[in-house]
Amino acid sequence: MAATDVFADALRLPVQERAKLALELLRSLDGEPEPGVAEAWDAEIERRGAEVDAGTADTMTFDEYRAHLRERRAARARK
Fold first, then answer.
1. DSSP label of 34
2. 60: left (phi > 0), else alpha (psi -120 to 50), else beta?
C-alpha cells in the first residue's frame, strides 16, 4: 500500500483517532531513548527548580520574554 493511500485512509478517521495516529507516528521517529536520558532530564529539572527556589535563577516576565523574542527575530531578519 502506498503512503498516499494510507494518508487518504487516515484522513477519513475521526479527529480523535487521527490525533492518536499522528502521535504514534511521531513517537515512531524518535527511536529508543539513550540510557540515562530520562534521569538526566529529571536532574536538570530539579537543578532549575532549586535555582528558582533559591532566587538565583535568571528569570524574566512574560512581557520581557516576548520582547526578547522580537529582538531575536529582528536580528535574524537583518542578517
1. P
2. beta
26, amino acid identity: L
Mind listing the pLDDT tens digit for each residue in 29-50?
988 888 999 999 999 999 999 9
What pLDDT does 30 receive? 86
Residue with cell 520574554: 65
Which of 27, 49, 2, 37 minimizes the C-alpha distance to 10?
2
CA-to-CA distance for 40 and 33, rounded, in angstroms? 12
Q: What is the DSSP letter of 5?
A: H
Mean pLDDT of 18-24: 96
What percentage of the chain reaches a pLDDT higher than 90? 89
Contacts made by residues 66-70, CB under 8 angstroms, sequence distance 24+: none
In one letter, which amino acid is 6? Answer: V
